[in-house]
Write a structure and sequence with these properties.
The chain is α/β, with parallel strands linked by helices. It has a single domain, classed as NAD(P)-binding Rossmann-like Domain (Rossmann fold), CATH 3.40.50.720. It has eight helices and nine strands. A seven-stranded parallel sheet has the order 3-2-1-4-5-6-9, sandwiched between helices. Helix 1 packs across helix 7 and helix 7 packs across helix 8.
């Protein structure tokens, strides 16, 4: 194994974020989990350090943060956010604030959990916001930028999502690019991608994420 990385995970209490905290900690890396409030006991691995942050005043919460890698798994839904403006605040503004601050603090690799279909020119609001974040992150010129574009994410959520249950049953009928992917596979792939630490911009969709997480079982 290479030397342990110093990894910050944003969105650490969400589906992919929790999986990332667990996967990076299990791989022996130092993990700082950013959270709005202190998680319940046992919600995150014991090896992770929790830092409670105020996203509206993030710069005041991030002083002296020592991180080589940043994993951004921030995200909400229109239903949870309540309005397009509130959705954009969480899915665009917060990731960009995080990126600018950690870039200034010396982070060399930013790993974004985006979404399949992200496109800054899309007519679909969700896809357009995701695409705008990707484009603006590229302009920050991190030495390494990894953009993960998973398809529909599967895993244990607090809320019930009937569409996910349906897609889980029908996923085997779909091409690998569009088939649902487990959040744990996304996290495992991000650990691999962080460890490879390739320079430049790398965009990775579900088929490759699945292959990175489980080479022997990846679908063709």
């Amino acid at each position: 194994m290479t030397a342990p990385l110093h990894v910050v995970v944003a969105g650490s209490t969400g589906l992919v974020g929790r999986a990332c905290v667990a996967a990076f900690a299990a791989a022996g890396h130092r993990v700082i989990a950013l959270a709005r409030r202190q998680p319940e006991p046992g919600a995150l691995p014991a090896g992770a350090t929790v830092r409670v942050v105020d996203w509206e005043h993030l710069d005041a919460s991030m002083d002296s943060l020592d991180a080589s890698h940043v994993v951004c798994a921030l995200g909400t839904t229109m239903k949870q956010a309540g309005s397009p403006a509130a959705f954009r605040r969480v899915d665009h503004d917060y990731p960009m604030m995080l990126a600018r601050i950690t870039r200034q603090l010396g982070a060399r690799h930013f790993l974004l959990v985006s979404a399949l279909g992200a496109d800054p020119e899309s007519r679909v609001f969700y896809n357009r916001v995701k695409g705008e974040v990707e484009r603006e992150l590229t302009a920050l010129a991190f030495p390494g930028l990894t953009i993960a574009r998973p398809s529909l994410l599967l895993g244990a959520r607090e809320e019930t999502r009937p569409l996910e249950s349906l897609m889980q049953r029908l996923g085997w009928l779909m091409p690998a690019k569009y088939a649902p992917i487990d959040a744990n596979d996304v996290a495992a792939a991000l650990v691999r991608l962080a460890g490879e630490d390739r320079p430049g911009v790398r965009i990775v969709e579900s088929r490759e994420l699945r292959a990175l997480a489980n080479p022997a079982g990846a679908r063709g």
